[in-house]
Amino acid sequence: MHQAEVESSRGRILVIDDDDLFRESLSTNLTDAGFSTDAFGEGLTAIRHLEQKSDADLVLLDWKMPGMNGIEVLQKMRAEKIDIPVIFLTVLGAQIYEEAGLLGGAVDFVEKSRSFSILLRRIELILNGQKARRQQLAPQDGDDLIRHGSLALRYASRRALWKGADVNLTLTEFNIVAYLTERRGRDVSYREIYDIVRGEGFMAGDGDIGYRTNVRAFIKRIRQKFKDADPDFSQIENYPGFGYRWLDEVER
Asked: For residues 110 and 118, is the Cβ–Cβ distance under 8 A?
């Protein structure tokens, strides 16, 4: 494992790649760009590190590795409630791989052949977007607990409760629910929701089809988690061709 000696205010990035030369070169470039880094040659050790010290702001993850491949590492991270943004790094350029990675919960997909300056720009966009979203979603009155009928949102811990039952949302899913409820009663477009997930300006797959597929997958998981707590849950309504809205309970 390589760790930058100087802590950086730009953020900490965790690199997972089995190619020793590429991993070292990328870590050096990131350090030179002002980031702190941790680097691992395989996924399981990286996951154990994140479980003990979840201080990374972003993960750069190789797709094709022996043992656990990139998508398996991502799935394990999400199963362990590690919701740090992930960028896949790969030599696989086919669209099917990109869509699989994005639907699996990654925020971006960059081919290794691209220059470091391009990767750095993607990193900056994601980290700046994450910071802006955290500020946007923070309660304005300083109160940690916000209630919307049967829904209670604790912003400090990013926990959601429905009729007193814990709804086991990831950080991204919490942010989507918070955004919808703050705009409850009005239609929220696929693009708005997608910006919450990926950051403004990102596209996945084939244009509108790609980002709508991503949003539908997130909403499906969110609905199921609420239904696990309450089989009668039906507050998230689809506006076909446009997006979704959160309904006040009196609208049901």
From this structure: yes
Domain with CATH 1.10.10.10 in the chain: 141-251
CA triplet 233, 239, 241: central angle to 5 degrees? 140
Q: What is the pLDDT of residues 117-142, one digit of tens each?
A: 888 988 887 777 665 555 555 555 55
Calculate the CA dihedral of residues 95, 98, 101, 106 and round it to 10 degrees. Answer: -150
State how far the alpha carbon of 164 is from the alpha carbons of 161, 174, 192, 225, 231, in Å. 5, 16, 29, 14, 14
Residue with tokens 């809205």: 245
Pairwise CA distance, residues 167 & 121, whole Å: 35
Looking at the chain, the domain(s) classified CATH 3.40.50.2300 span 2-135
Quote the pLDDT of residue 113.
83
Distance (Å, rounded) from C-alpha 42 to C-alpha 128?
Answer: 28
- Residue 109 pLDDT > 80, yes or no? no
Which pTM value belongs to this model?
0.58
**Residue that wins the pLDDT comparison between 82 and 131:** 82
Query: What is the distance between the alpha carbons of residues 158 and 238, in angstroms, rounded to a whole number?
Result: 24
Query: Rounded CA gap, 66 and 173, in Å?
Result: 31
Whether domain 141-251 has CATH 2.60.40.350: the reply is no
pLDDT at 129: 65
Q: What are phi and psi of 105, to 5 degrees?
A: 120, 5
With 0-12 / 13-18 / 19 or more C-beta atoms within 10 angstroms meaning exposed / middle / buried, residue 191 is middle
Q: Which CATH superfamily is domain 2-135 in?
A: Response regulator (3.40.50.2300)
Please state, in angstroms and rounded to a whole number, the distance separating the CA atoms of residues 234 and 186.
16
